[in-house]
Amino acid sequence: MAHFDKAFPFSNKWMDQRLAVNTLQKVLSTEYWIPKNINFLWAMGMILAATFGILVISGIFLLMYYIPSTKEGFDAVNYTIMSEVGYGWLWRHIHGVGASLVFLIIYIHMFTGIYYGSYKRGRELIWLSGMLLFVTFSAEAFSGYMLPWGQMSYWAGMVITNLFSAGSLELNGVVEWIRGDYVPGQAFLGRFFMLHVLLMPLIIMALIVLHFGTLRIPHVNNQDGEEVDFEESAALWKAGRKKEAKIIPFNPVFLSKDVFVMGVYFILFFYLVFYHFEFAMDPVNFDPADPLKTPAHIYPEWYFLWSYEILRPFSKDVGLIWFAFAQVIFMLLPFLDRSPNVAPANRRRPFRCWFWLLLIDMVTLTIMGKLPPTDPTFAMIGTIAAWTFIILWLALPFITMKEKLVGGKK
Amino acid sequence: MKELKVLFVVILFTGITYYGVEPFAHHAMHKQVDANGQEVIYEAKDFKYPDLKAVTAKGDATAGKAMISACTGCHGIESQKIKAPMDASMSAGAYGVNPPDLSVAGAIFDEQFLMNFIMNPTHASMVEHKFKGGKVYPMPVVAPDAQTAANIVAYLKSIAPKMEEVTPKEAFVAACGRCHADRYGKWTQIGDVPTTKANIVTHQNPELMKFDVKVAEYQDHLAKYMGKLPPDLSIMIRARSEHFMEHFIENPQSQLPGTAMPRVGVNEEGYAKVMAYLEETGDPSKPKREAIGPWVLGFFFIFTFLAYLWKRSQWKDLH
Amino acid sequence: MSERRDFFGTALGAFTGLGALGALYAAKRTWDPLPSVKAGGFTTIDVSAAKENVLNTEMWRGKPIFILKVAKSDKKAHENKRLIDIDGDKFLVVIGLCTHLGCIPAYFGEEHSFKCACHGGEFDAAGEVTKAPPPTPLVIPPFKIDGKKMVLGEEGPEFQKLKADGLIA
Q1: Within the 195-254 window of chain A, which residues sit less than 8 Å (CB to CB) from chain B?
Q2: Helices (H), C82-168
Q3: Cα–Cα distance measured from residue A58 to residue A81, given in angstroms and rounded to the nearest whole number
Q4: Contact map slice: A 230-249 vs C, CB within 8 A
């Protein structure tokens, strides 16, 4: 065994001898250097962590009273939790609004990364682990939406699992296997409850650790994409020359800005929880599931609408192919972008157009995805938007190959 | 400042997405057009039933009381100690549905509506489309002339309690409860769910089971009579917008053309009482939510302010 | 680190702590027994059909309740002040759980005695301990007499008197 000097139990020296707490503190906190040249968008990561934490905690209280049964689930949520449980309504509202807002912040966080080139050489794994988080959060949201067993739970479950029949391949056996039954029923509810409450959260937590891990060595990006010499700047900071240093420590400087932005976020969050929650708790899901009655309008939650819309304009099989394309293509961004420039989009000529077009296209797809498919004008806009999406991604390598080098090292 | 520009862009795109996905899309989904393709704009409802012919006869409550046996052949009036001749289950077997108790009818239903209803039930309740081709409406026309109708209604109004004394549940039971259950309020179409005790040895509760059988049989008759079982209203207040509820109750055909639900003819206060009951069972946390909201938001405003002070102190000498 | 910096950070931390207390209060209330559970805590028992020296078991708040119309022949138990007088008859109304470790004792009518199988404890027909190890008599639950009926869960005047005399446990 290694030699241990005497130290008072649980003192700083004692803990450092056994767990290297001082080194950990330096590496993860007080000497984890973040560039100074950042804006409030850099706080989105911590906001996501906080929102995930809120979802887990509110979920823990909901889990105490929820019953995963097609007969009892609806009333467990809408009667027991909403009327009987002390502050049950509060946890439910927090959980519903949180599930919606987490995706708003995910999209802001994602597009911040795309804009500033935070996926380029050295940071590919940050991007990939982040996209994997997007996929697992999507699975988590979908499985959670099944639990109240309302009309939308049932019919969204029906529609999305039907996708796995793979169009003309008619893999009905696969669909039945996923459901554990011919239609979404008790077996379906039970397994999605398991996914939502145990498996997906575990995977998410592991991916978050991975995401933080992949960020540590390349360090956080900055507004100009400048390659910062962290050793040099750290030395300046430690020498007390803080104005000249290009970096700040995570704790307490970066954290103080994070917490301020979080405060603003929480004002919005709780305003929605108390006063404006219908967008997150759609009225259609307050009708109990009825396998014999399809709602007049079936639509997913807003954050799935853009990819739902890519499915719609095409024939069954073609739609499925482009739908699969849409799920996967974002992951390939670090490899499709052929330019080595780490710079904000406004300094990369063709990429700048690509970025804003993509963003406007995603918003258009989202809105069209909610509108009924019967209106010819909206259907036309939706088709154009879907094709724009496909063309933008296919064109990306060609646009970026021609990109002029933006100053600084390659 | 650069950060404000960034904030503006984020708010702009979020706002456009929100607008498109919520107000705009819901408007597109629920748009109603008339025969010319013009969008129908509904005004707020005051529950006055202008389509019904105004009855000008002045009702005589005493004359109405003398006639009341024409009604109590099917209806009970609990406040006057008159029991309905058949219980709910037997009535459902005979008529399809249980005729309502008339104790609060004079308070919660519109006077003009009641008089028209007595003279021509299917017309006033807008279910003529359901009672064609030989199908007979269970309530006969007891008073084909306006004066008799006015007398009966005058009597009903004379025995009705004051509006302030009618509880939301009483209004709901009288106006809706014969067809609609409200399980969160422990209400079934045949009455409140009784408090029973299970056998502690066998763990069975035959008393409750017998009650459930009676409810099921009633619902059977009701579903046959109506064409489908009227939905449980426990959480309807969150499943439909205020706009829908107001227009639907005032005129069911306006929101669900062809529906078997009759226009029940509540007046404005009666409607308010019914909605109060629906809020009791469907959104009971509303008062608490509105009480706590300002405190939580206040907390976060102060939190943000303190966080700003901390941030400023940390970043002060860095630029 | 200058003094001023710590001040704002500490102030923020303390204020956040207040908020955390509020959240903890809400969390505590979430664990509270539900209203329907608390309402279920009242049981009405009708003793009019009770036979002498025949044990009836009811349930109250999930626990077994022994109702015994004490035999007049069991003189010692019959005189015990723990028994409840309902319409001239003397009743034992106790929670049917041995006060040692909570097993349910069985009643032996001929011997007018409750015997607990777990560790051999015994009680007489008035619920008093006649053989160790139980430390205290069988517990009398809160009750209220209403003619020939009894409501468990409510503290009626007779219960209050027993409580004042130190006889309920």
Answers
A1: 223, 242-243, 248, 252-253
A2: 157-164
A3: 12
A4: none
Inter-chain CB proximity C12 and B303 less than 8 Å: yes
Strand, helix or coil at B191?
strand
User: Encoding tokens for residue B289?
Assistant: 């939510």
Tell me the mean pLDDT per 10 residues along chain C, length 169.
70 96 97 89 87 91 92 88 89 94 93 93 94 94 89 91 89
Whether chain B has a CB inside 8 Å of the CB on A305: the answer is yes
The reply to whether residue B197 touches residue C43, judged by beta carbons under 8 angstroms, is yes
Of B314, A54, A92, the C-alpha closest to C19 is: A54
Tell me the percentage of chain B whose pLDDT exceeds 90: 65
Task: Determine which helix (DSSP H) or strand (DSSP E) holds C76, and give its type and residue range.
Answer: helix C75-79
For residue range A365-392, list pLDDT tens digits in order: 999 999 988 889 999 999 999 999 999 9
* CATH classification for the domain delimited by A300-404, as one of 1.20.1070, 1.10.10, 1.10.287, 1.20.120: 1.10.287
Distance between terminal CA atoms of chain B?
15
pLDDT for res A250: 93
Contact flag B21-A370 (C-beta cutoff 8 Å): yes
Do B15 and B87 belong to one domain?
A: no
B23-67 pLDDT tens trace:
898 888 877 666 666 766 666 678 888 888 888 889 899 989 988
Q: What is the mean pLDDT of residues A329-355?
A: 92
Tokens in use for A192? Answer: 């999605």
- By residue range, what is the domain housing residue C19? 3-32
Residues in C touching B303 (Cβ below 8 Å): 12, 15-16, 19
Best probe of the B interface among A110, A370, A377, A378, by most B CBs < 10 A, is: A370
Distance CA B1, CA B9 (A): 13
What's the CA gap between C106 and C134, in Å, rounded?
14
Number of C-beta neighbours around residue C42 at 10 A: 15
Angle between helices A44-65 and A88-116 (to 10 degrees): 150
- Domain containing residue B311: 291-319
**Could you give the CA distance from residue A150 to residue A54 in angstroms, rounded to a whole number?**
24
Q: Cβ C35–A87 below 8 Å, yes or no? A: no
Asked if pLDDT for residue A332 goes beyond 60, the answer is: yes
Which residue(s) pair with C106 in the sheet? C115
Q: Which of A85, A252, A256 sits opposite C30 (nearest CB)?
A: A85
Evaluate if residue B106 carries a pLDDT over 90: yes
Distance between CA A261 and CA A387 in Å, rounded? Answer: 37
pLDDT in tens, A165-200: 888 888 899 999 999 999 999 999 999 999 999 999
> What is the structure's pLDDT at A408?
47
Q: What ipTM describes this predicted complex? A: 0.92
The answer to whether residue B297 neighbours chain C at the CB level (below 8 Å) is no
Q: Chain B partners of A273 at a C-beta cutoff of 8 Å?
A: 296
A36-227+254-298: CATH topology: Cytochrome Bc1 Complex; Chain C (1.20.810)
- Average pLDDT rounded to a whole number, residues B149-178: 94
Q: What is the pLDDT of residue B37?
A: 65
- Closest CB from B2, B10, B24 relative to A108: B10
- Residue A254 binned pLDDT confidence (cut-offs 50, 70, 90): very high
Is A252's CB within 8 Å of C9's CB? yes
pLDDT for A409 equals: 43
Contact of C56 with chain B, judged by CB distance below 8 Å, is answered with: no
Q: What is the pLDDT of residue C48?
A: 86
Q: Does B291 touch chain A (CB under 8 A)?
A: no
Single out the residue of A397, A399, A404 nearest to residue A341, CA to CA: A404
Q: Is residue B195 domain-shared with residue B116, that is, in the same domain?
A: yes
What is the per-residue DSSP string for B37-100?
A: SPBPPPPPP----TTSPPP-PPP-HHHHHHHTHHHHTT--BGGGTBPPSS-HHHHHHHHSSPPP
